[in-house]
Amino acid sequence: MKLHSSAAPARLLLASVLLSAVSTAQVGQSTLWASDDVTRTIYHVTQDGVVLFFFEAGVVSSLAVDPGDDTLWAAKEGFSRIVHYDRLGNQLGFFETTDYDAGATRPEGVAVDYFDGTLWVVDDVTSTVYNVETDGTLIGSFTTATFDPLATSPQGIAGDPQDGTLWLTDNLTDAVYHVTATGALIDWFPADVFAQAANNPQGISVDEINGTLWVTDRVTQTVYNLERDGTEIHSFASAHYGSNNPTGIAYDRSAGPLDLGQAADFGILGCGLVSIRHADTLIEGDVALAPGGRQNFFHGLIEGSMFVDPNADDTKLNSVQISGTVLARELGPAMQDARMASDTAASVTPTQSFGNVNTSQTITGTDGFNVIDIERVSLRFGEKLTLSGTSASRFLLNVHGRFRLSSGSELVLEGGVLPENVLVNVIDNGGIVRITGHSTLRGTLLTPHRRIRVGRSVVEGALISGWNIRIWGASTIRYAN
Questions:
Q1: I need a labelling partner for 93 at 20 to 30 A (CA). Which of 288, 404, 448, 479 fits?
Q2: Which class for 457: exposed (0-12), middle (13-18), buried (19 or more C-beta within 10 A)?
Q3: Where are the domains of the chain?
Q4: 351 backbone dihedrals φ, ψ, rounded to 5°
Q5: DSSP letter for each residue of 72-134
């Protein structure tokens, strides 16, 4: 069986998509991936349909998130292919479904088995469920007649993380089926249980956290969150993310661009020189030296542990006190997660855009996800950039040029906005990111391509840099992950 690899770059769409006006997403909520076979697009969305990211992928009838590495698998019925993507839409490889069954020319659904990492594929022509390796090698199969002789048009399939069973949709019987891994029927319900007009169920996925179901219906053009008996919990129109022909749906445990992966484990993460130079400096959180990192700690207190990559240098502790321990850890993956998070965040369609922010300004967001695109930030003499929202608001600030807070300036959170729900992503190559002169930043600062300097100031969040991080004067970094 041949797995075809590819390094073809994603083709990011430049056209804007319709964002919902009001979001009801909750803090820390996981996300969804959805496909449309008319717009030929895969969308990354919140649990109420707000677009986080999207890329063109051709005709995709179904998709699944691989819990092993968070990549995507997509069924492309028009090409008789199962395609593997990374989270930015770059194609990693594919295999032909006709390689394991010459008659399997229309793969409608794909799922990842949570227990062994293999794939489940359902085909509309053969009315068969196939279990295959990730290179397409056949493991086993059963026909849909095993659980219902009338279910001859299977559309979606999902693996259940609770017990390894399977969930399927069929748009001839207009039903959702729960079956064993060998096809024995456990339970089923018709689509009109959750919506009277629903008679073309397509994609299906199982929520890892609570075991509920996510189902799309092409006729109602709606994404449904359901109890396992079909009772509706929540729904939203697929038009929220620009789709009128919803096909696949896939649960994703990631919270989207605010999800930093392993990089979120640390209050400070750097792969250049990390310097702490004042006796009154306080770091509340763990410090990590990624590959190539080195430390120059003279004075101060780290209320946490220090993690050192085997390819980093930790030989200059001097008078810095560490309340925890010094531990070895492979930190390349954490830095990779940080760079991936920055790239993903930078590609998200903004909900608001600003030019130069060089005087006090308030940005008001909604509950849910707010993506703020800013050309540059340069505040001083007590000037404030205020993010106003609620405890359910999440803010992503993509800053392209200079980022400087000096002389008592602040990033202020108003109305209950939490520092852990604010990510300041300083992108592109540019000058040093500076927070100096008794200034305050609330939120996590992520900048893979720039140096960070904090002097006599406070950061209520993490500092993550692919270069140097210099902390001088009586500064405080306060991070509770």
A1: 448
A2: buried
A3: 4-254, 261-478
A4: -90, -25
A5: EEEEEGGGTEEEEE-TTS-EEEEEEGGGT-TT---EEEEEE-TTT--EEEEETTTTEEEEE-T
Identity (one letter) of the amino acid at 298?
F
Is pLDDT larger for residue 387 or for residue 20?
387
* Averaged confidence pLDDT in the chain: 90
Q: What is the pLDDT of residues 171-190, one digit of tens each?
A: 999 999 999 999 999 999 99
DSSP 374-409: EEEEEE-TT-EEEEE--TTEEEEEEE-S-EEE-TT-
Number of other residues whose CB lies within 10 A of the CB of residue 8: 9
* Whether 357 contacts 376, CB under 8 Å: yes
pLDDT at site 255: 66
| 309: confidence class by pLDDT, cuts 50, 70, 90 | very high
**pLDDT in the model for residue 182:** 98
**Nearest-CA neighbor of 234 among 243, 223, 245?**
223
CA 117 from centre of chain: 20
pLDDT tens, position by position, 70-129: 899 999 988 999 999 998 899 999 999 999 999 999 999 999 999 999 999 999 999 999
Residue 355: CB atoms within 10 A of its CB come to 10
Neighbour tally for 139: CB within 10 Å: 14
CA dihedral 68, 72, 77, 79 (to 10 degrees): -100
Rounded CA gap, 300 and 137, in Å?
A: 57
Alpha-carbon distance of 29 to 391, in angstroms, equals 13
Among residues 444, 60, 428, the alpha carbon closest in space to that of 260 is found at 444
CB 128 within 8 A of CB 80: no
Q: Which of 105-109, 199-203, 270-274, 435-439 has the lowest mean pLDDT?
A: 270-274
* Arch. (CATH architecture) of 4-254: 6 Propeller (2.120)
Output b/e per residue, 386-420; b: 16+ Cβ within 10 A.
Answer: bbbbeebbbbbbbbbbbbbbbebbbbebeeebbbb
Q: Say whether pTM exceeds 0.85.
A: no
Q: What is the pLDDT of residue 261?
A: 84
> 168 phi and psi, to 5 degrees?
-135, 155
Q: How far is CA 467 from CA 79, 304, 344, 457, in A?
A: 44, 22, 19, 20
- Please state the φ and ψ torsions of residue 48, each to the nearest 5 degrees: -125, 15
φ, ψ of residue 93 to 5 degrees: the values are: 165, 180
Side-chain half-sphere of 436: how many Cα atoms within 13 Å? 12
Tokens of 299: 């004075």
- Alpha helix locations (H) across 262-369? 332-346
